[in-house]
Specification:
Blueprint: H1 3-9, H2 14-18, H3 38-53, H4 55-58, H5 61-70, H6 78-94, H7 96-106, H8 111-125, H9 131-159, H10 165-193, H11 197-219, H12 240-269, H13 274-302, H14 304-320, H15 327-355, H16 363-374, H17 376-392, H18 396-418
Length: 428
């Protein structure tokens, strides 16, 4: 029997049949995300292990900056030293322009060689003595590796969750908070309370990261097959909701890193012990663990953009108050309140960014492009803060600047709500 007869028996003409070949068929929509289960949560915990080792270590930058100012780089100004951490943050965000799309296309295989390179960069940091060495190792190499690890892991976790995506991303970002508790305490104790010296203190940190990175490479996998279309989803640049959330996120980052980078230095200037000042970042990050998980759950219920607005405004108010903090109790209370308020900026903003994408297989591209666009925030924020400290000899002006920018970032997100069907006063 002829092919035409077969098609006619199915009620199709030969012309109609020719238009339904596999090459021209519209791909079926992806199956719904499981929103839970062992596999989904193992991906989220594996991604949290990556943020623990990368962004968690970056959250200890204040402890390292305070040590550099007092030891290896005492001949350099605060804004010069702040550029090291700023370059790290800029690259770990900007490299998302490449990392996110690569994950969409090739999956988790890109994580394995980068984990080795990242641990290598930490070990090499232990050998640095000159400014250019710190810049190349901590600023450039470490920043690139962190960017290639963080964005794919977050995109992987996003694919496994839909209704609970805010909560899942809260768990992922909470890994950075836990790292931000452990690393500053450990670094402060090793650097100020032992005779190990800078080199072995950093090497111990590197050895601590190894099992977490190994676990992540075994568990972080995508749910969807690779996307074979263009590497970059340029249509995102025409998505007004996406662009507004990105602007809001970037401005919040300029302000929120003011206490993260300079709280220990400010505490020392107020007479606190250097070791205890290093512990303040651990308190900030410990509180932000709850600030990332709890608001992430609330964002799924009350709206992800709503949570971006709330996080930006409350964090900005905290930054405004930085220069008024005095005494041990005051610094502890401030660290707890700021940590909780600022903790939800990352998880809420990333959930809002993925909410602007209609296709789950493009989450990596959206997150990567979004993180690349907001990278200017952490690049310029800390050096501006350092320049203000150097110019005015105190922290009052820098707290006003950081607070104003962070509040403005939170308020800008309201414009993204206006583009949603729910409207400005709706759940979005």
């Amino acid at each position: 029997m002829s092919a035409d007869t077969n098609h006619n028996e199915k009620g199709l003409s030969s012309d109609e049949a020719s238009t339904t070949t596999p090459e021209t068929e519209t791909p079926p929509p992806p199956p719904p995300a499981p929103d839970g289960g062992f596999k989904a949560w193992s991906v989220a915990i594996g991604a949290a292990s990556i943020t623990f080792s990368t962004l968690g270590f970056a959250n200890s930058s204040g402890t390292l900056i305070q040590h550099y100012i007092s030891h290896q780089l005492s001949d350099y100004s605060a804004d010069d030293i702040a550029w090291i951490a700023s370059v790290t943050l800029f690259l770990q965000f900007a490299i998302g322009m490449v990392a996110g799309p690569l994950f969409d296309r090739y999956g988790a295989i890109i994580l394995r060689p980068v984990t080795i390179a990242y641990v290598f960069s930490v070990m090499m940091l232990s050998l640095c003595r000159e400014y250019y060495q710190f810049m190349l190792c901590q600023g450039v190499l470490m920043g690139i590796c962190q960017g290639l690890l963080q964005l794919p892991s977050m995109a992987a976790a996003s694919q496994w969750f839909d209704k609970k995506r805010g909560a899942a991303l809260g768990v992922v970002i909470a890994g950075s908070s836990i790292g931000g508790v452990i690393f500053p305490i450990l670094l402060s104790k090793l650097l100020n309370g032992t005779n190990l010296g800078f080199g072995w203190s950093i090497r111990i940190i590197g050895f601590l990261m190894v099992p977490f990175m190994a676990f992540a490479t075994a568990t972080v996998v995508p749910r969807l097959p690779g996307r074979k279309t263009n590497i970059w989803t340029l249509s995102a640049l025409k998505n007004a909701q996406f662009l507004i959330v990105v602007v809001s996120f970037g401005m919040c980052l300029i302000g929120m890193f003011t206490p993260i980078f300079f709280l220990p230095t400010y505490a020392v200037s107020r007479g606190l012990d250097a070791t205890f000042a290093g512990y303040l970042l651990a308190i900030v990050n410990g509180a932000s663990t709850f600030g990332r998980i709890i608001p992430g759950i609330l964002a799924d219920k009350f709206g992800r953009i709503n949570m971006v607005v709330l996080a930006g405004v409350t964090s900005g108010i905290c930054v405004f108050c930085l220069s008024s903090v005095t005494g041990v109790a005051g610094f502890v209370i401030y660290s707890i309140v700021f940590g909780f308020c600022s903790g939800s900026i990352f998880s809420a903003s990333l959930a809002a960014i993925t909410g602007a994408a209609s296709d789950p297989s493009s989450f990596g591209a959206y997150m990567g492009m979004g993180m690349a666009l907001v990278a200017i925030g952490p690049l310029i924020g800390p050096p501006i803060d350092g320049a203000l400290v150097a110019r005015y000899g105190g922290f009052e002006e820098v707290s006003y600047f950081g607070g104003a920018v962070c509040v403005a970032g939170g308020l800008i997100a309201i414009a993204a709500k206006a583009l949603r069907p729910e409207g400005v006063f709706g759940r979005a």
